[in-house]
Amino acid sequence: MAQKPKVDPHVGRLGYLQALVTEFQETESQDAKEQVLANLANFAYDPSNYQYLRQLQVVDLFLDSLSEENETLVEFAIGGLCNLCSDRANKDYILQAGGISLITNCLSSPNEETVLSAVTTLMYLSSPGASSHPELTSTPVVQCMLRFSLSANTRLRNLAQIFLEDFCSPSQVAEARSWQAHSAMGIPLPRTEAPQQP
C-alpha cells in the first residue's frame, strides 16, 4: 500500500491533490499508482474539486492512463473521467482532447466496471439528439451497445438499452443491426465476477 502523501495539513485541498499527482508521477510502485489513481478518481466525484483537477491536469492524467496495460489503472482512470464529465468544462476538454476513441476502446475491456464506466461516460459526453460528435454513436459503438443490450449482466444490459434509446436514432440502430447481420462482431463481453461463497 502506498503511504499517504506527505502534505502539510495547512496547504489545503489544492496542495493535497498536487501531492497525489506528484506521487503518481514519481512512484515506481504499481500498487501506489493504483491507490493514488483511485483517490484521484474519488476526488473527481466532488464538483468543488473540478477547478483544482483541471489546474493540475488530472483530466490528461486520466486520459493517458486509459492506454495503460494495467487494467486496474484503466478502471480507475475511466471511473475518474466518468465522475468529471458531468461538468461542462471537463466534458468539452475531454471531447477536444480526443478522448472519445480512448473511451470507446474501454468498451472491449474484460473488466466489467471499466466497461460500465465507459458506457456511462459516453452517455455523459453525448447530448440526446446532438450530432456534434458523431463518433459517440458511430456504427461500431452502436453495434457494441446492441451486443451489450443482450448481456446477462443487468447493469450492462440496462445501460446499453438506455444508450440505444436515448442517444441513438432509430436509423443508427437499424444500420448497426444491418452491419451486424453481415459481419462477425468480436468485442467480447466483460467478465463478471463470480459470487463469493460464504
From TrEMBL:
- SUPFAM superfamilies annotated for this entry? ARM repeat
Matching Pfam families, A to Z?
Arm
Source taxon at top rank = Eukaryota
InterPro entries linked: ARM-like, ARM-type_fold, Armadillo, ARMC7
The ARM repeat boundaries are: 57-99
- In the record, which residues are listed under signal peptide? none
By what name is this protein known?
Armadillo repeat-containing protein 7
> Which organism does this sequence originate in?
Sciurus vulgaris
Taxonomic lineage per UniProt?
Eukaryota, Metazoa, Chordata, Craniata, Vertebrata
